[in-house]
Design brief:
The protein has 383 residues and is mainly α. It has 17 helices and four strands. α8 packs antiparallel against α13, α10 crosses α17 and α12 runs antiparallel to α13. It is a multi-pass membrane protein.
């Protein structure tokens, strides 16, 4: 174990001081700082332009009522709606900027329900249909004397959804359910990014030592298993360092720590989901790190090994491509098969856990499979 730790420490310190690593790691924080400076200088001007584009400063609607259904206008709408007896006069007021829109209600409205909305400006300004709907509904139910019934017709129900089952109740409602899915989903993305970043260091290190025949000298002092394990731990830690620097810089520049705290609080009610997602992330990274390091021993050059690595990175992303299927039916046969395949099990299980009560033998089986896969791949790679 001492030799493994020594190799890991050596690989980490040699590579962490490389100029290319320092430059690449600093790239995200530097881009974030540049974006922050640009937003400080130009954000206010851009925001003002957008406000001017979408907000004309008034919201008065002229109603040309030929049906008689909306005369007189109810008192609560008098500030935003005015009667015009003549459509041409209303259009003239619209063109002069006195109105936001003109609504023409024909005498066939009760039978056909069609109205004409005349507005000036771009399509983005819209026709204010949400406000019009409230205006029309309130006037149509005014004939009903019962105010309680009027309120129910305007707003038929306020649903309080009750979920059956421990999984849904523990999630803290719809918001908690969404958040409890987002975090494992982000773990899946983080796993794919970590694999992509770390794979380059692992493959390059093994391929360079193999091509320069340095590896033959090293193997005279340590076993192949110790060498491979040390490289995986050291260069894996290097990749994780890079990812953590990026996450910390992004969170610090965007105020993301507050957002992260808001996401984590609902998850405290479902510690098992977060905990298992972390377990699958660590095991998944271990499997791919060992596998990619072993691939470095197969290729005759760094470029050849990197091409082979791309295939396994694609396999790791397959569950992310099937997110729609997993969300719709997390216990489907194809999803369960992916949960039992070592290369897709980590991401698949991270996506399944917050969506359903995953059978315990699926969880235990996937973890056991990953634990067995790591030493097997180390042994095969050492050969």
């Amino acid at each position: 174990m001492t030799k493994v730790f020594t190799i890991a420490l050596h690989e980490y310190w040699i590579n962490v001081r490389r100029p290319d690593f320092i430059i690449f790691t600093s790239l995200v924080p530097l881009l974030g700082i540049v974006a922050l400076i640009v937003s400080l200088f130009f954000g206010r001007q851009a925001g003002g332009a957008i406000v001017r584009m979408f907000d004309s400063g008034l919201d008065v609607t002229a109603v040309v009522d030929r049906s008689g259904e909306f005369t007189p206008i109810l008192p609560r709408f008098e500030e935003e709606y005015v009667h015009y007896g003549d459509e041409a006069e209303a259009r003239t007021a619209l063109e002069s900027g006195e109105l936001q829109r003109v609504v023409v209600v024909p005498d066939t409205y009760r039978q056909e329900g069609e109205v004409t909305v005349v507005t000036e400006g771009s399509r983005f300004s819209g026709s204010g249909t949400s406000g019009l709907r409230a205006f029309f509904t309130a006037h149509l139910v005014e004939e009903i004397g019962d105010e309680t019934l009027q309120a129910r017709l305007i707003d038929p129900y306020d649903a309080q959804v009750e979920y059956i089952g421990e999984q849904a109740q523990a999630s803290g409602g719809v918001a908690g359910e969404i958040l409890s899915f987002i975090v494992p989903f982000l773990f899946g993305i983080l796993l794919a990014v970590t694999i992509f970043v770390s794979s380059g260091y692992l493959v390059r290190s093994v391929a360079e030592e193999k091509s320069s025949r340095v590896i033959e000298i090293v193997l005279s002092s340590v076993t192949p298993q110790q060498l491979l394990a040390g490289k995986v731990i050291g260069l894996g830690a290097l990749g994780l360092t890079q990812i953590l620097v990026w996450i910390a810089s992004a969170a610090g520049l965007s105020g993301g720590l507050v957002v992260l705290a808001g996401i984590m609080l609902p998850l405290l009610m479902r510690v098992e989901v977060f905990g298992l997602a972390l377990v699958f992330y660590i095991l998944g990274f271990g499997v791919y790190a060992v596998l990619i390091a072993a691939i470095g021993t197969l290729g005759s050059s760094f470029q050849e090994s990197q091409q082979i690595t791309g295939i396994f990175i694609f396999i790791a992303a397959i569950p992310m491509m099937l997110t729609g299927v997993i969300m719709t039916n997390p216990d489907a046969m194809v999803v369960r098969v992916l949960s039992w395949f070592p290369l897709t099990a980590p991401t698949t299980m991270m996506l399944r856990l917050p969506l359903a009560d995953v059978p315990w033998f699926d969880v235990a089986g996937s973890i056991l499979l990953l634990l067995v896969t790591i030493p097997v791949v180390v042994w095969l790679g050492a050969k």
